[in-house]
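User: I'm putting together a small comparison set for a docking exercise, and I want a reference complex before I start. The sequence is below, and the ligand is pyridoxal-5'-phosphate. Could you produce the 3D structure with the ligand included, as structure tokens?
Assistant: Of course. I'll restate your input first, then give the structure tokens for the complex.
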Amino acid sequence: MKSLPAFDRLWMPFTSHQDYEDCPPVVINRGEGIYLYDTDGKRYIDAVGSWWVSSFGHCNPEISAAVKAQLDKLEHVMMAGFISDATMELTAALSEILPKQLTKTFYSDNGSTAVEVAMKIAIQYHALRGSERRAFVSLGGGYHGDTLGAMSVGAIPLYHDLFHKRFKEQYFTASPYCFRCPAGKCSKDCDADCMNSLAHILEQRGNNIAACVFEPMVQGAAGMRIYPTKVLRQIFDLCRQYGVITIADEVATGLGRTGKMFACDHVGITPDIMCVAKGLTGGYLPIAVTAVSEEIYSEFKGDHLASNRILNHGHTFTGNPLASSAAVAAIKLTRENALTESARASMAHFSEMLKHLDDRAHISGIRSLGFVGAFELVKDKNTKQKFPPEARVAFKLSQKALEKGLILRPLGDTVYFMPPFNVTAKELDEIFTLTKEALNEALASV
Ligand SMILES: Cc1ncc(COP(=O)(O)O)c(C=O)c1O
């Protein structure tokens, strides 16, 4: 095992440090397309887009060129009294792709802050209208980031339970988890029964609830839980009925990832507020958007004495020009490549390859939408019985895959793939071949 100087100074996110004692992190020093290379020159396929951001592969020549050009012009200017031309260009580019009703764009730095901003806007909007709505409702299994506000609407027990005690009024629905449907149905006979829980909460508490925060079509961190359009429609319908603002967290699903520009496009409904981040710069630099309807924004208008109408929120790096230039280039690539016939064909091929895994023992719950694909490892396919946690099957699978040069990062026992839009059939073939080999070896060791 190679020693990593200064590794003992590091506190790594989302990982048990005991694992790092046996398997230290791989030090990467180069990327190209779907590949990453470690300091020894070993090649790895990045099948998860480095936490779902790398939509056009690593070191994409067009995004790199845009950032390099910006680097010699301006690295940063505060976004108060000033704004960079790059950020103006980004705002114009966004206006071409965002739903027309979302007329205002607020910038922050990452997915969590995009959600925080949306939540603050929702509370302040209601306050400005003389209403005391301060609570939020969100979906079981939801994940919206790791800052406190974003965590308050998250519902993954491992991440959130400890912290929920801090928050007064948050409500959670059942999770739209089709593989283990709370109503015992399958997606074909789905009647959005899981959202009866939302109806119930809104009936009881609707008057106190400022907004509903949800991941449209795919609950990412919960394990790529892809749910039917019927459920999403029901969320919108119920929220509208109770005057609850809809905050669509498109941080992971936005910008073509699910086969539409935004996941809400699957039902053709525009939320009141939309959060976008991750793929926005194709994985280059952090920047996020909270896009807001004119109706909500209009409550914030007022003369300079109406200080209660100011949205008192901002980050030092808000609207950073380097990130903006990367985002402009990534949006151009998204428009040119992510929603084309050939992208659709590639997504269909991806979906077919996933389905072929169904003949394997212990693989179940295969699902995909656009370029999000996943399956679950189960002990018994007939009963969907889980492996005991101590078996660590998915972890073993990811370790075996890593040895073979494939990067997977399962969520619990869910193994998922998020290839870039320009992935080739050959690369997909390699991903699935290596996954199968790694799975055989991991299962043999259980
Ligand atoms: C749906 C969703 N919202 C918000 C976030 C938080 O984004 P960030 O990690 O950039 O803060 C994530 C991150 O995975 C996400 O998947």
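The chain has two domains: 7-60+339-444, 65-338. The radius of gyration is 22 Å.
User: Thanks, that's exactly what I needed.
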